Structures are given as structure tokens and as C-alpha cells.
Amino acid sequence: MFVSPHCRPPSSTPENNPLRAHHIDALFYITPIENLKSILLNGILCRNLMNQLKKDFYDFSNHKIQERRKAKGLHNYVPLLFNPECALLYDVYNRTKGRVVVLSIRVDVVMKPGTLITDRNAATKKANIYKLSMENFEKINFEKIIKRYNPKLGDDMKQITQAEVLIKHKVEPDMIYKVIYPAHLKKDVKEIASEAGFYDIVQNQRLFSFWR
Predict the structure, then answer these.
(1) What is the DSSP letter of 206?
(2) CA dist., res. 4 & res. 23, Å (int)
(3) Residues 84-99: pLDDT tens digits?
(4) Would the pTM of this model clear 0.90, i.e. be above it?
(5) Which residues of 118-127 are buried (b: 16+ CB within 10 A; e: fewer)?
(6) DSSP code at position 198
């Protein structure tokens, strides 16, 4: 198997990383393809850092939701997902007309100081936000979080399937180990990844049509 030059050996174990202890081998970040090259080269920056450095990025987010996240201090964190098959992917896919990719992130990223976890979308009123620890991980309902989203599940499950891992300030480029893309973006993703010197790219049409 080809190993990307961005990859590095795991630096955590089930004994010190709650995600590894629960057999979680990846986290996920959803973004429009327009942001892909910058992310592969520079990493994923939190909103406050992007604004501070005056980085250009394609903003696909709901601005009312971002105001709520800002008020809760969440703009100092990069939001990663446990479950990519959630309402957020459905929403971003439709709003970008399918120009979206999913990044797989190494779970070692949670070893960064200040990492938080949530039991649902962090912007919602009912969200509980915890400092990452073995004990606190038991407070989230992981079986519900990883369910494939379906509108018939209702609003509560919509929020729960968007539970987050919040990484302070930045996810470094070497924590990104795979780019997952829909078939119609194959040419664009290959070109962008090659320019960035990144080669772990995977086409997965099922991921981008799970709601159909």
C-alpha cells in the first residue's frame, strides 16, 4: 500500500487515547474542494486563526450557526466528526452542488492539549462539551453517534450524528491521511493532490449518496 509523505507512525495507544481504546481509527473533516489544496499544504485552521492570518477560504457554513459557535468560544477549535454519514455532509453536498470532499484524520490528533469532545453538534443548545478523557468518553452515546443519518430519524438524531472532536487551533497536514471524493471530482482531486504532493486519495461514491 502506498504511504503518503504526509503520514507518520501512530504516537498513541489504547491506554492513553480514548478513541483507540474504543477502536476508532479515524476522524473526519468535510470541506468544499476549493479549500483542499490549502488544507493539504497548511493543515486545517480554526476560524480565529484563519481570520488572524487573513487566509482566504471558501466559506460554506451557515452564518447563524457560526455566530452561535463563536459565542461558545468554538472558533478557537477545528471541528472534526466521528461520523461522516451525517446531515452535515448531505447539507454541504447540496449547497456546493456536489463539490465536496471528506478528509480522514489520524486519531493521534486528539493527543494535542486542550482537545474536547461533544455528544452532538456543538452549536446546539443541548450539546454537552467535555475535556477528552477516558472517563468523559463514556458520557457520549457512541452507538447513536455513528448511525447513518436519515431524515426519518428526527432532529435529535440529526444533532447526535454530528457529535464533534474539537482540536485546538490547528490540525497539522501530517494528521491528514486520506482524501475521499465522489466520482465526478476524480480529475480535480487528482490534480490538486498531485500539486500538493499528496497521494492517498480514494473514490467512494457510496459515502456521497448514503441519504438516497
Answers:
(1) T
(2) 23
(3) 999 999 999 999 999 9
(4) yes
(5) bbbbbbbeeb
(6) -
